[in-house]
Amino acid sequence: MTRALLTVVAAGGLLAGCSSSFNAPRDAQSGAAQARWRSSVDAIGKPISEADLSAWNIDVAPDGHGLPNGSGDVATGGRIFAAKCAACHGAKGEGLIGDQLIGGAGTLATPNPKRTVGSYWPYATTLFDYIRRAMPYNAPQSLSADEVYALSAWILNRNGIVPDDARLDAQTLAAIRMPNRDGFVPDPRPGKL
Ligand code: HEC
């Protein structure tokens, strides 16, 4: 008996999920009840201000969309790296308690692949996004846009990807083609990106 009932309930649930009758109970409420529900929901929270939103809205797309104004060069990046990053990533980005950031070129197809920013990451714009969002590990989001451009320039330079005199900004960073850009393939399974 209980089993039969459960089956019916489950089938009903499936049907409801597949058709527009899903909202039927709410539709059946009186207009006044719906208005009360709506105003109680509207009373929760308040609209976020542009200023508060911009502090969270910091993602940078692979094509560079979302990169801020500003710029930074390799030499400046080297100085910032020594002061704020080397303690964890090593003076040459060789890795300590933080990941190795530099080197590993040509190792991906070997039995001992070294997946670094230089050898592995497909987009330079992701480097900017990651540093701005998460580093230094002990003080995330404390760096200015100029500092993040400079750090990106130094890390890419030491990986042999940009020249010593490179100055990166939104345009020049997005234009960089990373060595492993074509090393990723789309997942062909349906429903996957
Ligand atoms: C207190 C230690 C510490 C400091 C300081 C630090 N990092 Fe990191 N960093 C880490 C750790 C730990 C990770 C790995 C985090 C994870 O996997 O979640 C990391 C990861 C990274 C990565 C991603 C590497 C990869 O291949 O996934 C980058 C890029 C990076 N750090 C850059 C920097 C830069 C630039 C600075 C200086 C502004 C910095 N870090 C300062 C500890 C640190």
From TrEMBL:
Pfam families recorded for this chain? Cytochrome_CBB3
Matching entries from InterPro entries are given as: Cyt_c-like_dom (IPR009056), Cyt_c-like_dom_sf (IPR036909), Cytochrome_c-type_DH (IPR051459)
Q: Does the keyword Metal-binding apply?
A: yes
Any coiled-coil regions, as ranges: none
What keywords are annotated for this sequence in UniProt? Heme, Iron, Metal-binding, Signal
User: Is the Metal-binding keyword given for this protein?
Assistant: yes
Q: What are the boundaries of the signal sequence?
A: 1-24
Cytochrome c domain span: 72-159
Which PANTHER family does this chain map to? ALCOHOL DEHYDROGENASE CYTOCHROME C SUBUNIT, BLL4482 PROTEIN-RELATED
Task: Please give the name of this protein.
Answer: Cytochrome c
User: Where does this protein come from, organism-wise?
Assistant: Paraburkholderia silvatlantica
